[in-house]
Amino acid sequence: MDISKIQNIGKINFNGEYTPDCVTPKSEVKMPSKVLPSIRDAIIATGLKDGMTISFHHHFRNGDYIVNMVMDEIAKLGIKDLTVAASSLASCHAPLIEHIKNGVITHIETSGMRGELAEAISRGLMETPVVFRSHGGRADAIANDELHIDVAFLGAPSCDVLGNANGYTRDESGATMCGSLGYAKVDAEYSDCAVVITDHIVPYPNTPLAIPAVHVRYVVEVEELGDPEGIMSGATRYTKNPKELMIAKNAANVIEHSGYFYDGFAMQMGSGGAALATARFLREKMEEKNIKAHFALGGITGQIVEMHEAGLIKKILDVQSFDLTAAASLMNNRFHTQIDGCFYAGYDYKGAAVNALDFVVLSALEIDTDFNVNVLTGSDGVIRGAIGGHPDTAAGAKMSVVVAPLTRGRIPTIVDKVNTVVTPGITVDVVVTDQGIAVNPNRPDIIERLEGADILLTDIESLKVRAEKIVGKPDPIKYKDRVVALALYRDNSIIDVIREVDEDEEE
Amino acid sequence: MRLRRTMMFVPGNNPGMIKDAGIYGADCIMFDLEDSVSVNEKDAARFLVYSALMTLDYSPAEIVVRINDLSSGLGVADLEAIVRARPDVIRLPKTEAAQDVIDCEREIERIEKEAGIPIGSTGMMAAIESAEGVLNAPEIAKSSKRLIGIALGAEDYVTDLKTTRSDGTELAFARGMIVNAARAAGIDALDTVYSDVSNEEGFLAEATIIKKMGFSGKSVINPRQIDPLHRLFKPSDKDIEKARNIMEAIREANAKGSGVASLNGKMIDKPVVTRSKYLLELAGLAEEAEEE
Amino acid sequence: MKIIKPAVAGTLESSDIQIRVEPADAPGIEINLNSSVKQQFGKKIIQVIHDTLEEMGVTDAYVEAVDKGALDCAVKARTAAAAYRAAGKEDYEWRVRP
Question: Could you tell me the CATH number of the domain that includes residue C53?
Fold first, then answer.
């Protein structure tokens, strides 16, 4: 007998008289528990040390209390020099500024940033440049250990004592919910040590689940995870803004005649006003022509859910639920599935869902005449946005449609050169504004189909000229030499740098 | 022929709306110095609309400015500024009688002369907003060569009638009077606004009625009302095809030097030709409406 | 044209500019601008305010401007309205559009 092919089999017992060492006497068996009394206890238990990397998810959006609660405890314990690798940060995370000043945090990685923290970073708060990654890029970096996470602190609206965690609960408690925990799933799986922080411990097993107990080391119960208002809006409403509606109507017309609107198509819609409204106009066309989508991907809104429930979209792949309707649907609808960041947009992960998209509708802060898109820095050069899945979906989808008003107030959207390249122009196919539609010249197939359908097209240069004619030519933003942040592309190569803004008045 | 299916109201003291007024595709843009501007801001709105007309390009839309009526003491000051900024049309509110138009025209002509603008180049339209005005609609419509149309202003009118806006019964007489007076004078008739912006169904029902009555178009207060109205006024494919065939037959007859055109053995009457031309223009096919 | 009293025109709505014109403490035109687009358009806005005042014959004035992304034509209109209010005059010399 040759047992050399059987891995790690050890010694074979031939007579069945074997008593395993690992069995606990029945009288002593009890339900194990990973619950610790406080965040402080959990931090100590994880063995968190100076110089380590910790992570957070952004499923609680601008209502999140977790990041600030955990960082305050870490600071009290005197731990320093940490890297915070959050899936994204919001305005509510302004208290991080103090922790940076005190040396508790010395590096940040995130998808986005807004408010006071973002402004402080843009003005040179940190020595090491902040690293911005796309959702797909971050998921890959974590999975490949390019971004190693020592400890993940993951808020979850429901969890059992072993750490099976989810973004909702099926009991009648009326507890907080955030829907999908897609970005947190990656952190739980690949971090050395994951701590689930919940305000709602439920009986074992907490199924269905987002994060399985095998990926969780500790569980902590707290009073509140966040401000429910900030975590979720009741329902994402359709815009009434006539300009956004016009953009949306144009975008829906483009999609209808693009060649990618056929029975069984796959789509992703951003959550901006115009992108959302595009879904509404598209729905009318789907009903009119009896065309159904096979799946919808991405951040999911109530509008997508309504279409799913009306039988217009067969399946939903949900990495982040944007409103209560979406979260409730994830709970109730069998073909509304929670997916993780790698599944959604991973670049190395060859089966990423973004690659199965026919089209995606995306917003933009700036678009340049090379079709490069900026969603990260404002027209004044200050960080105020998030890369999100923008470059991932633009590259993956067969057609990417970027929707934006030609001007916002006095700021032109179509410019010679974007402040920060987040999504390279080569992956941007159609730009739809309220005052014209431009197709990337590298997509003659789309141009031909749209012209064939009598859709009036212009070129991106003309859009830029038109914007400048209205608002005038802006003076360029002044920057200092110092680099305050790096924008990474989905393969985690550096696509652009963000410099410190120079606001000194010249007299 | 100029299409006047939609006349979009833009409050004259709102820079944001003035900036974007051109992007929605309205046939006419009407900058308002009257009801949408509070008494204390009349001067500021006048400066703003003047300044916008001097610099911004709204082509191909027709530019209309609603001034304050002359009796308010503001109307002439409005004209001094606005006529020089050369809109296509000055809209006179609260027109009671032909004399109101004549008085306003006199001021416009004086300013045109002073400013060196070709006399008569400023068009006019009159809004009728009272029971008296409606009765005088025929004379008003014929009171000046500058008039491109007359319009119904329903809010003041129903108050004058001691009723309120409802299903349109209250406006039946005024609408009939105005559209008939306008057509008799060979000018356009424009219907009043529909203010419940979120009620698209009600808006379309009203628009359908006024289209059937013969109105050229309607005032709109929100850009969202433009597209539905243009769609409503768009002729059907079948009608377009018919009109094309008629114009084709006319061109053939003209080419042959024949005075009489016929289609499928039937002689084509002049009104049919006129209607076909109008229909093709509405369909955005003006080049096919030529007789030669 | 002499500025005799403080006066304001314009609002703090998006795409508008609020201009406050006051009699000057010192000779000349002094403009203090606060703008959401100062980096990109600050110089231009100050230039337009300055030129508009000069064109109307205002030589001495203190101007406080709070800009919310107004186009040049709105800057001009608000400046003119504020200055005329501040001068207590109504005899603006309208030009003819070419």
Answer: 3.30.230.10
